[in-house]
Design goal:
The chain is of the alpha/beta class. Helices cover 38% and strands 10% of the residues.
């Protein structure tokens, strides 16, 4: 294989959830050589990191887990002693920025992914940002992605020199959860490997948090059997 035909490297943010796993499948299907990156950031549980490791092994891609402590700043139900909202209806989910929003999380994650990409001579970053089901998260919107892409170009040695043109890919941005699941099924994603719940009960998803409700609704609307084991 010539150098020109070799797949381009890409850094894919992998939480172990439904969205990021689908993005990993998309990156690979588009011909990239994905390098998965996950974070032990002080989240409430380790289930998502266990899932991320499962997914990376199943895809056969390099996988790194970086440790950072976002509990030090708190401010989120995922990193502080704040109750995870349960049994909310769709209107309540989309009304305001939810308490499960982790302050500047995607900014921090993408910044570290950018540094990793620079060491790999990679110009492409992938993440599972979605403005349809998670419209309340300010760092899951097109304006954020576009701004970070501009930042990447002026914040790195390779960007400033013009050696690399950085691009932040958010292929799920305008898709519903059902659309995401259908796309993943087309690409052969095994969603039994993934984890979405904010507040699991042992090895079971709670079935009541926003993430569980959106996941369950997505499978129903997609007409795909949900492999998730729910506590409720």
């Amino acid at each position: 294989m010539s150098l020109l035909s070799q797949p381009r490297k890409a850094v894919v943010l992998l939480s172990g959830g439904l969205d990021s796993t689908t993005v990993l499948a998309i990156a690979r299907a588009e011909g990239y050589l994905p390098h998965a990156l996950s974070f032990r950031y002080g989240q409430r549980h380790q289930a998502e990191l266990t899932a991320a490791s499962r997914v990376a092994r199943a895809f056969g891609v390099p996988h790194r887990i970086l440790a950072i402590d976002l509990r030090a700043i708190g401010g989120s139900a995922l990193t502080d002693d704040i109750e995870v909202p349960k049994d909310r209806d769709r209107a309540a989910m989309g009304k305001d920025v939810p308490v499960t929003y982790v302050p500047a999380r995607n900014t921090v994650f993408l910044a570290l992914a950018l540094g990793y990409a620079e060491t790999l001579d990679a110009g492409d970053l992938f993440l599972g940002a979605n403005a349809v089901d998670y419209s309340g998260y300010p760092d899951c919107r097109p304006a954020f992605i576009e701004a970070f892409e501009r930042l990447a170009q002026v914040a790195t040695a390779q960007g400033v020199s013009g050696a690399v043109q950085y691009r932040v890919h958010a292929p799920l941005m305008s898709l519903t959860k059902a659309d995401i699941i259908r796309r993943g099924v087309e690409l052969g994603v095994d969603y039994a490997l993934t984890h979405s719940c904010y507040d699991p009960v042992g090895e079971l998803a709670c079935g009541r948090c926003d993430a569980c409700q959106l996941r369950r609704k997505g499978f129903t609307e997609a007409g795909v059997q949900d492999p998730t084991r729910y506590a409720a």
